[in-house]
């Protein structure tokens, strides 16, 4: 466990800024289900752009038109990685198509993890929807609206602070002029993301409360000297949270070492958490070059029942402490055991055979 304890669910917001005069946002929050892919439009007889937008190609390519799927590339052109009808065209350059598979391959092989991070975000979003449906999660519309408005305000502040020339720009104008996107659709996406994030927090915490879990504080140190000094201070009776604030290198130090609850499992920290009596300190655990001390505050009894029973407990728990990266990772592992996640279509479309 490292310093960077990020809330991945919050990153799904991507939220922005506010008090805008361009298109007014929809009056009601958007549904949290995954956005439906629009039905493909029938291509016009000779309109290359329409065929490209629909991901289809005309039968015979005239001058400046997209070659039909499966036809040989013209002399001097770079062969596309795919010409299948299921491979949409994402751009046209000098009358030649760039296919979605080429874009994905370029993205995947760029030497960065961005492509996999984004597909992983989509996977998490779908898992959230599946669990929210299964549990019957409900979110207060007023809470969703406040989250959306706050996110927009934050994003607009970030945009204005990023460059002097943007000091007075509105979000809608920024989206229109700098991103080249429809401001209304952008706002709807942000509203949907805000609601999905709220759902995510509730399904993650709901899963945790339905399992055996322990509430912990931790101290993370990175040298043998710090480990020995921490052991000596704790043995002398100094409060754990004081030592955490002073010595811990983890982001939880500011909260006296308090982290998200841990579910019973076979990870090193879970093993210590459920082998140590409440009120006692376990460890140190050697993990990734760090030494981890664990104080067990208490253990929670698993809850049972529908959302009418589980929901109030979840809301109360979130009021005390939000979801963090550690809790999210535990949930993700559990969801991959509960639901099938198959990324092979993504890899094959990018030209990579799944392993």
Give your account of this protein's structure.
The chain has 355 residues and is α+β, with helices and mostly antiparallel strands. The protein has 3 domains: 118 residues, no CATH class; 60 residues, no CATH class; 89 residues, Chitinase A, domain 3. The chain has 13 helices and 6 strands. Strands 4-3-6-5 form a 4-stranded antiparallel β-sheet. The chain has a two-stranded antiparallel sheet with strand order 1-2. The chain is globular, with a radius of gyration of 25 Å. The two termini are 28 Å apart. The N terminus is likely disordered.
| Beta-strand content bin | 5-15%
Q: What oligomerization state is this entry in?
A: single chain
What helical percentage do the residues reach? 40-55%
Rg (C-alpha, Å): 25 Å
Structural class: alpha+beta
The strands making up the biggest β-sheet line up spatially as 4-3-6-5
Mean pLDDT, as a whole number?
77
Q: What string, H for helix and E for strand, traces the elements in order?
A: HHEEHHHHHEHHEHEEHHH
The largest sheet is: 4 strands, antiparallel
- Head-to-tail CA distance between termini: 28 Å
Low confidence ranges:
1-38, 40-83
Shape descriptor reads globular
């Amino acid at each position: 466990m490292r310093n960077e304890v990020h809330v991945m669910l919050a990153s799904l917001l991507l939220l922005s800024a506010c008090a805008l005069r361009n298109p007014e946002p929809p009056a009601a929050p958007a549904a949290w289900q995954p956005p439906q892919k629009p039905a493909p439009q029938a291509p016009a007889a000779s309109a290359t752009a329409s065929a490209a937008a629909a991901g289809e190609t005309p039968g015979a390519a005239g001058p400046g038109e997209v070659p039909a799927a499966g036809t040989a590339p013209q002399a001097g052109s770079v062969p596309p990685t795919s010409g299948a009808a299921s491979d949409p065209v994402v751009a046209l350059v000098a009358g030649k198509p760039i296919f979605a598979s080429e874009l994905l391959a370029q993205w995947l092989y760029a030497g960065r993890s961005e492509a996999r991070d984004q597909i992983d975000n989509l996977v998490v979003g779908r898992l959230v929807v599946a669990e929210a449906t299964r549990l019957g999660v409900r979110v207060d519309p007023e809470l969703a609206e406040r989250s959306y408005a706050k996110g927009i305000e934050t994003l607009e502040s970030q945009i204005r602070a990023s460059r002097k020339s943007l000091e007075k720009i509105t979000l809608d104008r920024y989206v229109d002029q700098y991103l080249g996107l429809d401001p209304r659709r952008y706002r709807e996406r942000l509203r949907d993301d805000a609601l999905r994030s709220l759902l995510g927090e509730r399904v993650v915490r709901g899963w945790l409360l339905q399992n055996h879990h322990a509430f912990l504080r931790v101290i993370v140190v990175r040298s043998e000297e710090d480990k020995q000094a921490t052991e000596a201070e704790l043995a002398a009776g100094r409060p754990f949270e004081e030592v955490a604030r002073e010595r811990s290198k983890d982001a939880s130090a500011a909260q006296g070492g308090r982290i998200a609850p841990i579910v019973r499992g076979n990870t090193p920290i879970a093993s210590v958490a459920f082998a140590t009596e409440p009120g006692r300190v376990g460890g140190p655990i050697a993990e990734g070059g760090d030494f981890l001390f664990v104080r067990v505050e208490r253990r929670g009894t698993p809850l049972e029942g529908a959302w009418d029973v589980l929901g109030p407990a979840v809301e109360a728990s979130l009021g005390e402490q939000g979801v963090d990266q550690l809790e999210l990772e535990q949930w993700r592992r559990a969801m991959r055991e509960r639901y099938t996640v198959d990324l092979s279509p993504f890899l094959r479309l990018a030209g990579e055979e799944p392993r």
